[in-house]
Q: What sequence folds into this?
């Protein structure tokens, strides 16, 4: 079987820790049994592997998340990137095309689609295994997970099973209801309806038939390549998988799940699951109650006298908010951070230390940049800024205008405007970069490849 | 007359904004009528000048505060620095010696001693003018200010006037009572006692007689110089002016003052006087009550849902505390900041951007340093660290091993270990300094003077 994790969202709801480059599913806030920290997506991949579900995991995501996924999951997963954000049907159509055309999966292989960040337990993955069994046993074309509702929520879609007695393992689906009123939700609960958890299992061939309605893959002698499908991504309609596939399908079954299932999408829900009240350099006084501090800055934080408050500090900003009101921060903070001040990239991480404008109109940007051992930054040139790099940890190879040289902690190199340069880490390598120029924007860059001599 | 402001304290009570290099009286948090900000000591100097009291103002302080006083008050004041912290009697003895021996004041000149940071009003300085009149009229050897008590406090010293009817301008003092119980304080209030506000007026000769008891200034032909008195500072007893002078004096009068008089020494009292609820890059949501945010960092702060809370953020740390509990933070934060992360020096300011230790045992420190126009850093050498300076604003003259060169924004210079260097600002000059070495401590420095060619 093939497991596809849908990784979407940018999300300001967990500001300042989440930003356009680091969605909530990548925040390293969940403590593992060994005391180390993992992100929501790392947790799901670990759980799927530990449940012996599969090692064939593909992340379907936006191109902007490729670097952080590579950084957090390395070669544990394949990655399919959408060229643009559309909706869940096109995203799943692209992932299916990838499995078929790039990975060469057979039409009768079972594919399971799920969100990349539910906060859930072992039984959830056991339920997925049952769904796979149902597809293999030809119970239905499409099998989905039904979450046992705990209250008549207006937020979820509902899956209504047929009322006849059937298997205890699964039920045939009669119909779907999207986000009902509380009164309707109460009626649905009386009919033993489930929440639609966004987990779907089907044979690859079933999905490819639907894909071909919009984009004929095989046309006589010619078969499209995956790259060709991806280039024509905008031809897929902007519609959800629920509307385009689930609600139109004549043959749908649901497998129920009733264990832990949460979306840690707000500070209120996330802090409920944190094992410690402080993460990072923080001290809590004796008069705090139900208060959490997460500090990714070097500056120490001291809190006291607070009740039901979350404090979150990182280069992008500092939040101090009662958990109740933290649900509303998305709009308030929309314009607070002009650019991400911390990013995980495929080669490592950077942190903005200083971003200053001066009376003479000049602008400077100072970053701490860390490359993982063996990783490199592409060969690049800037047209509007010079850079000074002072190496403070490790060893590497620096290229300037085609000349390689070894560099190590203590060395400084200067890269004038319009000079090609790259850097590769021999050991883990950290340097302080001072950018000077106008404008100082990430987009002032041209890239090519450098053929490293070692 | 001569006005002497006593500037003491280091104070963690306003952590993180105050530290050993920046006591509470130097925090630029008070808004002037024109909307610009001033510190408590800047306010007192401005008020004394606006009240036409005097332009002869001397700050008596610890050597560690010399740089920040120069930065905030420039040549508006003279400065006397104690070689070590002792108590108020030695501090005032040293200031009197300075006025007599260095400034050449006459024995009959009136000297007024006051704290450097009361939060008070015009009438306070008018009261000082009355005290000066009393000394000039030979009402008493020592005239002090009596603050009209508002409640039977245990925190203050009390001045008990003689009960006979006397002038409305002043009263003769019968006795002093230090920090009484509440019951005793109530009795003192019934006797029309005043709080001792620590403001004293006397003729310079009166004080010098007492100084000479401990250190004969004139001995036959020879008169000590001020530097000689300062070098022998440890010979003065560690005792307060109240015990050594006020309580022993046979001739003391008190001039009452009943206007605004506050010590803004805790977040609780200080925030009461702030005109704005946010200072710096901060946004307050709609559900806050009696909450103040002071942000000296670049990172934006968003707060919501808070009641009676102070948030203060600067390079030294971040405080989030109910105002009630902010009175107790001194002990809690004692070990939170290993070194000041922001300092005002006589030549300008610096801010620590990053202070990191790496797996290979190396340490790096990155600072943003700004020199005021025309100011310079002394010619210096480090034995354990190299430095890279990247200039990001302005123009200056850089010296390395005796060679001067002009530098400007965009330039980088490297200073290897054991090389003499200095920098002078032609215009306001900012550079990013990356220190690398072991150990990285401020004390790894030798200084001398450089004779600038321009």
A:
């Amino acid at each position: 079987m093939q497991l596809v994790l849908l990784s979407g969202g940018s999300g300001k709801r967990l500001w300042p820790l989440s930003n356009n480059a680091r969605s909530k599913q990548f925040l390293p806030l969940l403590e593992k049994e060994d005391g180390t920290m993992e992100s929501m997506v790392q947790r799901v991949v670990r759980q799927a592997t530990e449940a012996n579900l599969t090692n064939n995991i593909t992340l379907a995501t936006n191109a902007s998340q490729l670097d952080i996924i590579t950084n957090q999951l390395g070669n544990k997963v394949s990655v399919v990137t959408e060229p643009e954000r559309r909706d869940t049907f096109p995203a799943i159509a692209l992932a299916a095309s990838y499995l078929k055309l790039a990975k060469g999966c057979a039409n009768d292989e079972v594919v399971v689609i799920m969100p990349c960040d539910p906060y859930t337990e072992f039984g959830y993955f056991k339920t997925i295994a049952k769904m796979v069994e149902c597809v293999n046993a030809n119970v239905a074309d499409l099998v989905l997970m039904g979450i046992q509702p705990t209250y008549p929520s207006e937020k979820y879609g509902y899956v209504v099973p047929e009322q006849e007695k059937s298997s205890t393992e699964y039920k045939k689906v009669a119909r779907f209801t999207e986000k009902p009123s509380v009164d309707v939700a109460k009626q649905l609960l009386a009919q033993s309806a489930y929440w639609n958890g966004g987990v779907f299992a089907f044979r690859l061939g079933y999905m490819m038939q639907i894909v071909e309605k919009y984009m004929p893959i095989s046309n006589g002698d010619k078969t499209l390549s995956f790259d060709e499908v991806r280039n024509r991504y905008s031809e897929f309609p902007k519609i959800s998988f629920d509307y385009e596939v689930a609600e139109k399908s004549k043959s749908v079954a649901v497998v129920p799940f009733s264990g832990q299932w949460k979306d840690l999408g707000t500070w209120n829900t996330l802090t409920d699951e944190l094992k410690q009240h402080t993460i990072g350099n923080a001290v809590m006084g004796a008069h705090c109650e139900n208060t959490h501090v997460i500090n990714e800055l070097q500056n120490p934080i001291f809190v006291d006298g607070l009740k039901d408050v979350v404090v979150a500090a990182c280069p992008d900003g500092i939040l101090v908010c009662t958990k109740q009101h933290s649900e509303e921060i998305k709009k308030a903070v929309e314009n607070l951070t002009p650019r991400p001040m911390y990013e995980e990239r495929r080669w490592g991480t950077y942190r903005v230390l200083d971003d200053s404008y001066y009376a003479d109109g000049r602008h400077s940007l100072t970053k701490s940049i860390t490359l993982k051992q063996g990783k490199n930054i592409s060969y690049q040139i800037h047209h509007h800024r010079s850079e000074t790099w002072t190496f403070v940890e490790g060893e590497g190879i620096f290229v300037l205008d085609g000349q390689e040289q070894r560099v190590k902690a203590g060395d400084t190199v200067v890269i004038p405007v319009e000079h090609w340069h790259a850097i590769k880490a021999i050991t883990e390598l950290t340097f302080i970069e001072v950018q000077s120029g106008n404008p100082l924007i990430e987009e002032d860059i041209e890239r090519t490849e450098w053929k490293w001599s070692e």
User: Anything to note?
Assistant: The two ends of chain B are 40 Å apart (CA to CA). Chain B has a mean pLDDT of 93. Chain B has eleven helices and 32 strands.
